């Protein structure tokens, strides 16, 4: 009887161990390999092996890798030979996938750009950049690459939505979903809300509570400054970066260049008088320097929201 009980216990133990081994074999044993896209090695300056900058760079890349679960991070390895770096992971990545990508980028960038004091590497999942000069809050248009997809566009029709898709997303072409005509509806709506003192109404209600009201207000303000009719009044990209990175007094925006009005919408725009007499031709800038003249009859064909 005792022997029979002992054999049963042994059989149960073996069965349990086999089950555990089975599930362990199903667990992933290797990390997902991120997809490499491109790299930029300026090779303007290089460092010597075993130099203080090499030590600084290794410390920097190690610090970036350890912060990968956060999705974004920047770090400065201090003097005597400082290095500056940052990484950004795609927003839909898990912390594990981001960690894998930053780890791969930290290793691969040294292999592909040996002894370079600055470099940028891109993966489908993340990007990583380092330099021997500060790169934070500084616009640099030299660090970019052009990537082309493998899919060929054979006809313009392939870029168009079919009628059934358009009908579905517009709720059978309901006027409630119209955002404007002529291509400038969103700009028009932002200006109208700005003049009404309610620019935050431009935001999707579903995002309420997930953003800074001051930051959104500031971004809309900057966007309207960029849409002013006078090209000289529009801020340069360098100035836009400065306005986004620090708080300063900004001028009030002018009415957008493509703000159009017609009789059909006058009842909904009380208090928003146009900057031109309605009985005279209207001048609309088209492409910064070029100007198109529209008489009143042509103008009334434009129907913004």
From TrEMBL:
Residues 1-32 form the signal peptide. It comes from the Eukaryota. Keywords: Repeat, Signal. This is Gnk2-homologous domain-containing protein. Residues 35-135 form the Gnk2-homologous domain. InterPro entries: GNK2, GNK2_sf, Kinase-like_dom_sf. It comes from Rhododendron griersonianum. PANTHER family: CYSTEINE-RICH REPEAT SECRETORY PROTEIN, CYSTEINE-RICH REPEAT SECRETORY PROTEIN 1. The keyword Membrane does not apply.
């Amino acid at each position: 009887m005792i022997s029979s009980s002992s054999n049963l216990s042994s059989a149960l133990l073996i069965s349990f161990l086999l089950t555990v081994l089975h599930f362990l074999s199903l667990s992933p044993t290797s990390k997902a390999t991120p997809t490499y896209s491109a790299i930029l090695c300026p090779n303007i300056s290089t460092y010597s092996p075993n130099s203080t900058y090499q030590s600084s760079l290794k410390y920097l890349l190690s610090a970036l890798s350890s912060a990968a679960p956060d999705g974004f991070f920047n770090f400065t390895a201090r003097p005597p030979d400082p290095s500056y770096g940052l990484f950004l992971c795609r927003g839909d990545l898990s912390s594990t996938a981001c960690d894998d990508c930053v780890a791969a980028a930290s290793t691969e960038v040294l292999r592909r750009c040996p002894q370079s004091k600055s470099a940028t590497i891109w993966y489908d999942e993340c990007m990583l950049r380092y330099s021997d000069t500060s790169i934070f809050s500084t616009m640099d248009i030299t660090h970019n690459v052009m990537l082309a997809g493998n899919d060929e566009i054979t006809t313009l029709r392939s870029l168009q939505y079919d009628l059934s898709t358009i009908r579905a997303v517009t709720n059978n072409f309901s006027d409630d979903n119209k955002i404007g005509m002529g291509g400038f509806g969103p700009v028009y709506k932002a200006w109208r809300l700005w003049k009404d003192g309610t620019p935050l109404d431009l935001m999707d209600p579903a995002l309420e509570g997930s953003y800074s009201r001051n930051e959104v207000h500031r971004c809309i303000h900057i966007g309207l400054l960029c849409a002013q009719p006078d090209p000289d009044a529009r801020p340069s990209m360098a100035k836009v970066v400065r306005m986004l990175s620090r708080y300063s007094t900004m001028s009030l925006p002018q009415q957008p260049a493509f703000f159009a009005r017609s009789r059909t919408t006058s009842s909904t725009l009380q208090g928003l008088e146009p900057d031109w007499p309605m009985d005279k031709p209207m001048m609309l800038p088209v492409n910064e320097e070029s100007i198109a003249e529209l008489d009143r009859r042509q103008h009334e064909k434009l129907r913004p929201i």
